[in-house]
Each structure stands twice: as C-alpha cells, then as structure tokens.
Amino acid sequence: MSCLNGTDCRETAKRRTALAVLALMLAIFLLLSAWSFLPSRGQTVPDDIQYGGTGAVEGKRVFQAYNCMGCHTIVGNGAYFGPDLTRIHADAGAAWLAAFLPSAGGWPTSAAVRVQLQNPAAREDAGTVGLAAYLQRYPGAAERLDRRGGQHTLMPNLPLSAHEVTALIAFLKYTSALHTEGWPPKPREDRRMPAGLAGHTQAVGNGAASGQAAATAPSVPATATADAQAQDPVARGRQLVSDLGCVACHASDQKRTVGPGWGGVAGHEVRLTDGTTVTADEAYLVRSIRQPDAQIVADYPPHVMPSYDALIDEADMKAIVAYLRSL
Amino acid sequence: MIQIDYHTQRLSLRFFLLMLILFGFQVLFGLLIAVQHVDPRLLSGILNFNILRAEHTNLGILWILSGFIGTILFVGPLLSRRELAAPGLIRFLFWALLAVTLWNVATQSLAAQGIAGWWLGQPWLQEGLEYLEAGRAADVVIFVGFAILAWVVLRTFPARRDWNEIHWGLAIGVTALTFVWLFGVFFIERLDLQEYFRWYVVHYWVEGVWEVIHISLVGFLLVLMFKADVKAVGYAVFWGVALVWLSGLIGNAHHYFWIGTPEFWQFWGSLFSALEPLPLVFCFWHIYLDAHQDRRPLANAPAFYFILGSVVLEQVGAGILGFTMTFALTNVWSHGTWVTPSHAHLALFGTFGMLGIAAAYYAIPLLRGVKDFDQRLGRIAFWLVFAGMLGIAFAFAIGGTIQVFLYRAMGLSWFGGQIFPAMQFYKVLVPVFGLIFLAGAGLLIYDLLTLGLRARNASRPRAVFRAADPGRWRRTLHGTEAGLWLAGMWIFGAFITLGLLSFNLDAVAQGDPTIPYVLAGLGYPGLLLITLLFVWRFLASLEARPAPGPAPADFGQSADQAVRA
From B3's CA, which of A24, A269, B293, B557 has a CA 20 to 30 Å away? Predict the structure, then answer.
C-alpha cells in the first residue's frame, strides 16, 4: 500500500476502516434484500395469477421472446417508444387485450371487443357479459375505443399465436396486480389540461375518430343506423367490415396481414389446411365468418379468428358478402 | 522507430480496431432508431424498433468492452514488466468476441417472430430484457471470454506483494467483471426479483466494476502521459474505488424504487446513491492535478482530449445528471421517460466510450511506430463527438421534461396522440445532433484505422504555440478556477434537480408547467454549455504551454521509467 509521506502513515488504518465499513454495508444490503422478497411482504407472485388456463410465468416467457421491453417499459424500465404496460390489464381489461394483440397494427373496434367477450375466459376475468358493463369496469378500454377504434396503431403486427395471446394477458394481469408503491403517480383529479393541447376527447393530427364506442347499443353493430339501409350493399359491406374490425386483420387486396387478403378470393379456389381445395362460394364465405375454425386456409393458424356469428344478422351478412365479391 | 516495450502489447491492436468498427455500426443503428422515433412507421414490420435498439445497446456494450480489453492488454505488460501470459488464449479471445458479436446481431432479429430458443427453461437465442438481450448461448461465451481476460491479467501481473493500487484495481475489476455477469444468466419468474438481479449486472457493472477499471486505467494512462507520481495516483485509485463502492453498493437501490420491491429502498437508495458523485469529484480533481503537476506541453493531444472528456463527462453525465434522478422524489417523475436516456447516453459514451478512444489514440501510434501523427483529425473528431453527445443529451432531456409533464403529471394517454407531437421538435433534434456525432465518430474511426498507414508523409510539425501572452482564455488553469467551473456545473445540476422536484408541487400537478420548464430550460442548456466551455478552457490552457525546444517532445519514452513500484 502506498503512503504519501512514508512517515507516521495512518493511511493503512484508514483504508482498513473503509473496507470494514464496506463489509458492514454489504451485510445491510443483503439483509434488506432477503427481507424484500419474503412471502410475508405479501407481494403478488406470478404463480398465483392465471388467465384462460395459462399461468403468468408462461406469459413472461412470451413477453421476453418478443422483446416487448425493446419498445415498451414495464414497471418503468425498457424503451420509450410505446407506453408503459404495467397497468394495461387493469386499465383496459382482458377482452380489449385479446382483441388488440392478434392484430396490434390496428386499434380494436367495439365489435371486436364484444366478440372477445364471447370467450368464457375473458368473461370470467372481466366479471361481465355485455360490452356496456365491461366498458364501465375498464374505462381505459372505453377511452381507447372512443378515441382510436378502427385506426392504425404505430405498433407492427406480431405473429402471436392464440396461446401466446392468452399467456401474455396472464402476464399483464400479474403486472397489474404488483404493488409498485403507487407508481406511476396518479394525475390529480383537479388538474386542468394546459391550453393549446387538445381537450380530453379530441384527437390530434389524425382526422376524425372513426370508432364509435357504442356503449349503449349492445347487440347491433355501431353503424346500423336507418340511413344505412338505403345504401348500396357493397358500400354497406365496406362500412361493416370497418366497424366490425375485420380490416384489422384482413387486407382488401391479396396481401397477408394477420388473416388472408380478400382480393380475388370470392368465387375462386381456396386451399385448406387439410389439403383439400374448395371454391369460395357464398356458403364458404358465410361459414368462414360464423365458424372460422371449420375450414382454415392453408398456412394459417387455427383459433386466431373469433366467431362473429352472434354479431351479424342475415341482412348485414349479405352486405358483407356483396362487398367481398366486389374485391 | 518507436519501440514497444513488450511485443505482446501488439495483441491489443486488434481489440482497438474491432472497437472502432463496432462503434461505427452502433452509431448507425442509433441514428436509425432516432429517425424511427420521428417517424414510427419507418421500417415497421421489416426492422422493428426493438430489434434495432437491442443492436444499438448491445454493440455499445461490446465495443466499450473491446476497448477495455485493448487498454488492459496494452498496459498489462507495462504494469508487470513482462510479456502477457498465454498470447494464444488472447488470440482466441479476440475471435470469440468477434464471433459472439456477430451471432448476437443475428439472433436479435428472432424477436420479431417471438423465437427465444427455450431449452431447459432458458432462452438460448435471445432473451428480450433491456441490456441483457443476448441469449444464454452468447452469455456463456461472454462469461468464458471474461474468464480468459481475468486469467491472463492475473497470470501476467507480478506477485501480489508487488502490487500497487492500480494492480489491485485492475485485478479486482477483471475478476468482478466475470462474476457480476453471472447474475444475468438466469430466467427469473418474478418480475420484481428479475429486475432486482438485472440491476446487479447493469449497476454493479457501470457504477461499480467498470468505474473501478476506468479509475485504474485513467490513473495509469496519466502516469504514462504526464509522468504523474505513481504513489499519488495510487492513493487516488484506492480512494476513488473505495468511494465508488461505499456509495454504490447500497446505492444500487436507486433502481429498486418502483419495481415491486419494498418502500424502504427509497430511503436507502436515495441516501447512498446521492453520494455516488463523490468519487467522481475526486477523479475530476485528480485529472486537474495530474495534468498540472508540470508545464510540459501536450505530446499526444487527442489521447488527452478524450481522457479529459471521459473524466468530465463522468462528472456531468454520470454524476450530475444521475444525481438529479437519484432521489425517489425526483425519480418518481422521471422514471420511464426520456430523462433517463439523457443521462445514460452522456454517461456511458462519455465515461467509458471516450476512455477506449483515448487509449486507442495513445496506443495505436506506438503500436504502428508513428512518431508524429497529424493530431488535427483527432482533435476535430473530439469536438464533434463531444458537442454531438452533449446535444443528444440536451434533446433527450428537454423532450423528457415535456414527457414527464404530459404523460406523468397530466396523465395524457400515449394513444391519444398528443405526447409524441409535443416532443416532436426534440425528437428531431436527437438525430440532428446524432449526425454531428456521426461525423466525429467517422472521422476518428478513419483516423485511427489508417494512422501511420496513410500515403502522405507522416511527420507533420506540431503547431507549437509560442505567443508571449496567451490571453485570458489560454492562461494556466489554476485550482480555484477549476473549482469554480465545477461548482458552476453543480449549480446548473441543482436547477435540474429542483425542476424535477417541482413536479411534486400542487401548482404543477394541477396543470401549470412553468416552474419545471423554466428550471429545466435553464439547467440543461446551462449545464451542457458550461461543460463545453470548461473543457475548451482546460484544453486551451494546455495547448498554450510553450514547447521546451526545437525538437518535439518524445512521448514514446519507455514507460518502464514511469512505473516505480
């Protein structure tokens, strides 16, 4: 050890003291650390959280496998490209997440959320059956549907399987249940938005909000208004596929997004996963909407498209088929 | 022809060259994601932001490590008065580092398909955790690489009784580098526990092990460059390292505020991490002392420029900007916003990146036998990357302050589409300063890659300033003045801290951002400008030192004389 003057050097003693203090600090740190994770602290653990029969740990694996932290923060850590995800399950609920995740490139419409509420796992998790009650419980979902429903997001579509979606929801349910000492801080109730910034219900720079919340129209698609009856069926069909959220997964040309593109499908041959080839006649098109898992197009995964059977009546279905035929 | 004292020092050259190549690619990835922030649709679905960001952060870590290795291999024989042990292993280490880098660049793209390579419960291909994106396969190779480095260093060093503080610092550094890494190689089910251990690697590396290595290497480089007294430097190394750990061991808890760990960490973390700037002030003081113990002119300007930059940005980027966010009361606001990368970029590149570049500028001329190289390119490159990075930090910081107000305090939603437009000006500023940074990076990479190999005559007489009166800006910098500059930096740091604290005020929480915006608007530009001016002042005063005589100073003297055991 170096001593500056060489004479009467208390440097060694000082250094020994410093190292002893360091050892003490290590002991304190280790004690506090052990204390932090004791069961008696009552922190939520992922083993306690399930959704749709899948555990939160499995969802954590999916979260890591897709490197979600590379765009989003979770408990505030990660990247700042997308929002923090810690509380999104508490905010928007499982049905909204189940509608969003398979086609993250598009914001879900209320119809898409309603479709997901047919799923018993989503119903049980939300504790509600109808969309109105769901939106009451999850105001974050209501806000997202209201302000952005049907529009493009800035997130790319990810090839999440149905199981991965379920697992992710379980993980996000777990993070929502974590005690984080009140972080993020709750904005004050008595705050005034600064002037010059859009008020609570306006969107900036994206044109008119197109998704209607339809919180009070439980069984009818949002735009089944009187004047729609007089519309040309093809135009009506185009409106319906937008309102129902079909365009979140299907393109009107031949491009594959989440599901197959509709361009040139009607009336032509389609190859299915079981190797057979069928003609895409009206019966096929209707069946693919009402019972999507009955005949899946080759190279597409099952169980991703939900059934719209309960949401579309005969008249609307005819309009949709007319629209599909026009592509 | 300059003689290198030990031929195994030449093994360091390949690590410096690799460092420069990886640095170049890292900057390009950074520019790309900066532009994606401005237009998020760019390459969306083709090259997603998260993958490019992982490339940017991982390459950043790898080039800095390559610089560390190069520097350690260069100084190791000088510290030990003998050749490096196991040169074969060192060559293997180089190829392993290159291979694992290329492997990691490739496997990160699997995140787009959600392929982690799960096997035995571990993600072998990529693992998608910030800074630890590399998969288990890469983790194992990296661990082996660190173990090789540690082994070579410990075998090369003399007997332990002959160690001075620099030996201890480096020995502890390379050993700890290896073992702290292990905390990141497990899949952990609980998110709070995962974050707890992830920060072991991140914090105990950058605010622990890397700082130990940095202090030791800067100390030794100052001995080589200024013939500083090894005993005095050794004293500084011990206390610098001790203070780093005395503050930073419990100070790690400033990462444990909101991640699901208990509230008592807010007290311990705020208190101890607030002390973390102390060793940095100590180091700042020491670089002043060591550069002023005589009046010799700067023999190798670029090397010293980057060392000074490294120590100053450690103070400002790591110390001051870190300080502003280290308290629970400020961190509750800044956590998860752009205020964080403001600190991170300035601190990481500033402290550790600049050290690698400084060492390269010191070592490469010696390794290539270049007596007098054209130092202008290095100096210009320094100013470009220095100013560029200060500007990047500024853009992140102000954009982040706006984000804190709108996203945290006002609770505006991301999908509401109001936050990004409000930050847009600063989102554009990041790549604008990034281009300045890129110009400097490109220049220094070109300069160092081709140093001594360029066609024209190598020797260029150095511009020697012989004016009788250097003027006020170039006169000798005295300790009091240096202290005043430092105090000025901290005053601006206080403005920034008060600005973040002000988010707790009722008036701000109710919708009036005047106080935090004014304090940030004064604090950040003030801090960054005073930093720029201080470094300019310091370097100008050194450049103004008169040369001793017609022959330029020989900076290639045997370092043997400098190292007195």
Answer: B293
**For residue B338, which phi and psi values (nearest 5 degrees)?**
-65, -10
Chain A nearest CA to B9, separation (Å): 27
Encode pLDDT of B9-23 as tens digits: 999 999 999 999 999
Counting one residue from chain A and one from chain B, the pairs whose CB atoms sit within 8 A come to: 242
Q: Give every residue of chain A whose pLDDT is below 50, as ranges.
A: 1-2, 198-226, 228
Cα–Cα dist B121/B98, whole Å: 27
Say how far apart CA A233 and CA A317 lie, in whole Å: 10
For B340, B410, B502, the CA distances from B513, given in Å and listed in that order, are 20, 10, 9
Q: Is A20 helix (H, G, I), strand (E, B) or coil?
A: helix
Whether the ω angle into residue A184 lies within 30 degrees of 0, i.e. cis, is yes
Contact B418 A198 (CB under 8 A): yes
Confidence of residue B231 (pLDDT cuts 50, 70, 90): confident
| Amino acid at the residue A289 | I
Query: What's the pLDDT score for residue B460?
Result: 53
Task: Read off φ and ψ for residue A272, nearest 5 degrees.
Answer: -105, 170
Q: Tell me whether residues A33 and B196 touch, CB distance under 8 A.
A: yes
A7 CB within 8 Å of a chain B CB: no
Please name the residue that has the structure tokens 């509709």.
A262
pLDDT at B371 over 90: no
CB B30: neighbour CB atoms within 10 A?
26
Residue type, B73: L
Kindly report the nearest CA distance between residue A284 and chain B, in angstroms: 31
pLDDT in tens, A104-127: 999 999 989 998 998 889 989 988
A80, B338 contact by CB (below 8 A): yes
- Judged on CB neighbours under 10 Å (0-12, 13-18, 19+), A187 is middle
Identity of the residue in B234, B250, B335 whose CB atom sits nearest the CB atom of A29: B250
Q: In this structure, what are the phi and psi dihedrals at residue B115, rounded to the nearest 5 degrees?
A: -100, 110
Instruction: Enter the ipTM.
Output: 0.93
Cα dihedral sign, B80-B83-B89-B93? positive
Answer for the pair B249, A18: CB distance below 8 angstroms, yes or no.
no
For B553, which DSSP code?
Answer: P
